[in-house]
Amino acid sequence: MSERFTPKVPVQLDPPKDDPISLEELAKCDGTDPSHPTLVAIKGTVFDVSRNAAYGPTGQYRVFAGKDASRALACSSLKPEDCVPEWYDLADKEKTVLEDWFTFFSKRYNVVGKVEGAKNT
């Protein structure tokens, strides 16, 4: 992984999990219910972003919480309608941006599972 995405403050991450997480369960993890973690999925991999308020109910990136936001991240979009898992039809430049986001998240947030039935990995 590229060193340019290494966090300024070291992060101790747990070993990644591959527990299946349904889309229904992921949707419940949108930061609005304190009894659920805040989760964001990228390319079918689910990250726990609970400790970053930016993904919480009033945060600037709340639109990504509880969804597989692959397309929105690839397109640098904060539009809710872009927060979908489909990204295969994007240009190579956008696919590179998506891969950069995946690397960024991988170095900062615990992987807690995989979206059940994800085909966008």
From TrEMBL:
Q: Which Pfam families match?
A: Cyt-b5
**Which SUPFAM superfamilies would you find in this protein's record?**
Cytochrome b5-like heme/steroid binding domain (SSF55856)
The record's Gene Ontology cellular component field reads: endoplasmic reticulum; membrane
- List GO molecular-function terms, semicolon-separated: heme binding
Q: In this protein, which residues make up the domain named Cytochrome b5 heme-binding?
A: 21-116
Q: Which domain of life is it from?
A: Eukaryota
Gene3D superfamilies per record: Cytochrome b5-like heme/steroid binding domain
**Family membership:** Belongs to the cytochrome b5 family. MAPR subfamily.
Protein name (Swiss-Prot/TrEMBL): Cytochrome b5
Species annotation? Penicillium canariense
